[in-house]
Amino acid sequence: MDTTPVTPRSRVRAAWAVPAVAVVAVGAAFAAPPLLASADTAGLPTVQPDELVTRVLEAEPQALSGTVVHTARLGLPDLSLVQVGGADPVSLLGGSTTLRVWTDGEARSRVSLLGTASEYSAVTDGTQAWTYSSSDDEVVHYALSPQDAARAQALRDDPPTPPADLPTPAELGRQALERAQQDATVSVDAATKVAGRDAYQVVVTPTSTTTLVGRIVVAVDARTWTPLRVQVWSSDDAQTPALEVGFTDVTFAAPADSVLTFTTPPGAQVREVTVPLPDDATLAAHGDVPSTLPDDPADAPLPDGVTVTGTGWDAVVEVSDVDVAALLAGDPSAVASLPDVEKSFGGGEGANQLFDQFMGEGDGPPVDLDTATLYDQLTTPVEGGRALQSSLLSVLVLDDGRVLAGAVPVDTLRAVAGA
Amino acid sequence: MSPADTTAPATPAGAAAVPAPGADVPVRHRGALARLVRAELALVLGRRRNLVLLVGLALVPLLLGVVLYLAQDTALAGQGPPFVSRVTGNGLFLVVASLFLCTPFLLPLTIGIASGDAIAGEASAGTLRYLLVVPVGRGRLLAVKALGALVFAAAAVLAIAVVGLVVGAALFGVGDLTLLSGSTVPLADGVLRVAGVVAYVGLSMTGLVAVGLFFSTLTEVPIGAMAATVVVAVVSSVLDQLPQLAAIHPALLTHHWFDFAEMLRVVPSADVLAQGLAVQAGWVVVFGALAWARFTTADVTS
């Protein structure tokens, strides 16, 4: 083109300046809002840790709806293959997951875990709960047995009278703070913005140096005192939190009734699960509103077969006689004992025949492949069992039926197990 | 019309002399633009190749519906990608399932062919120079070509949707719609939501049309522009799979394509839908500007 410039150079330059400006304008339009959103929080009065904790305890539960992003960097093996099937709570173990939350601040709420063209919903109305998975069109209905439901209703109508020395939230807050300060330092960090709202930050830093937890940061809304974000930092990564759950947008208003109710969709498979209510004796033991927090959580009565070693953040919980294989198999004995379980597919007559053919052949319990595969992917074989090591929590499953868990490295668990 | 639109591209050295649009006197003819639009739409919608493409797309819901109808009592019923398993229960889902299956590749391929051909096809057939003689500026000519490509994209999405609705209603019937959230909405609301899905998918293709139009102004080989357009869509979806590139994912052309599912959640989030459309608008602005800059300054020799 050096011989005869057919279009004047200036004209060419001017024309090509238009897309250049377009790129800059579009880039700015997408980049600007987040930059503007991180505006200052200078107007917030400072608060002391004890005052902040008290305010949070005093705060009324808020009706709200919002979007929550859950990000886990637990150092677990990549589970992206598991997630191909659609929205599934398993995806919470790694990577970023978006959830929508609606609650009326009382008993009713809905949480939806969003996937690409799929969704996993959990709805509760206080006495019953449903989960619905759009990828396999299955409803799981959790409810109390009729007798238990009547008993729960009676309890609700006639709540146990609180003892006269019921502590005020301020008192409980002071106690909670003292408890936390036994094993950690509690401080208030610089105010921040979460989901566009001013928020105070409480930082809990464990004093122990052997635990995997570096610090926990809770951002609390400065107006409603609702926790808006929780970040858990592991002790070996100071750059990014290992676990982060926070609102990206939140509205404090009562959600529509249609969102908080659940009706089983026609044609969906329904699995009924009856949730046992503890018997009266147990309820009576726990029913009283505690006047104070127990002095040491380790003093609380533990179920049989559960022991706790160590204190504070280094505590290791040990459960003995766990049949891991049965759990992975979906506990066939438990499944068989539920007469309501509908062992059929939505796929019609042919599918059921096929299912029966396959099921008729094997002698062993039907193993839930997904669960078993997940278990194999997550854990690594160690001497005497398998171990799950994440950046915040370790679990050691021993071949002799003991399971140990704690916010400590696996080696510590093995030392406890060997002791 | 900017004065540049009437600037004459003179003859490059050695090439055959080409009359340029309104080199000396910009001649305006009342109604020329309208005639050009009519001619372009007739060309796009009447061209046999484009009709074959539309019929091919319309076959997707037909085949899918027939296969699901025949397989609904076998062991494989209820299997498959999202939405497909729901078609047998409600014919409305045949529209959504067909769009879901066509969105990753078939729809971009069809739209890439139409938009990549828009300018390059005329150039390769040697008719672009005659088009430039039409008393309509180059900017408007480009806009007319873009309109043709957009109309074809809309026709492609509507072909899937209409055939899906008819086949779905005929084979499976329509009724209250079960959303991804497990809630059930009345038929009228369900039809509105599915219409929203169709509209969102159609608008999601506008960015790709702009990309195709830009490539089409770069070359005289239409197949090259078509291939490049499809490659952009494919590369974009490949990049979308890499977690290492999570930072750029929200800006990718294909990243928000499947957000049409938002219409089928209990409370569709306007933010999510607006975000997806805003990204498409960004691509349209950038590649529309690139196509305009290229087309209004290029020397047309064919």
Automatic annotation (TrEMBL), chain A:
Please indicate if the UniProt record lists Signal as a keyword. yes
> So which domain of life are we looking at?
Bacteria
Record keywords, A-Z: Lipoprotein, Signal
Q: Name the InterPro entries for this protein.
A: LolA/LolB/LppX (IPR029046), Sporulation_related (IPR052944)
Q: Which residues form the signal peptide?
A: 1-31
Would the keyword Membrane turn up in this protein's UniProt record?
Answer: no
* Region described as Disordered: 150-169
Can you say what this protein is called? Outer membrane lipoprotein-sorting protein
Q: Which organism is it from?
A: Cellulomonas iranensis
Automatic annotation (TrEMBL), chain B:
Q: Does the keyword Transmembrane helix apply?
A: yes
Kindly list the residue ranges recorded as spanning the membrane.
51-71, 91-114, 147-174, 194-214, 221-239, 272-293
Q: Where is this region: Disordered?
A: 1-21
Query: Which keywords does the record carry?
Result: Membrane, Transmembrane, Transmembrane helix
Query: Record's Pfam families?
Result: ABC2_membrane_4
- Keyword Transmembrane helix listed? The answer is yes
- The protein depicted here goes by the name ABC-2 type transport system permease protein
Species: Cellulomonas iranensis
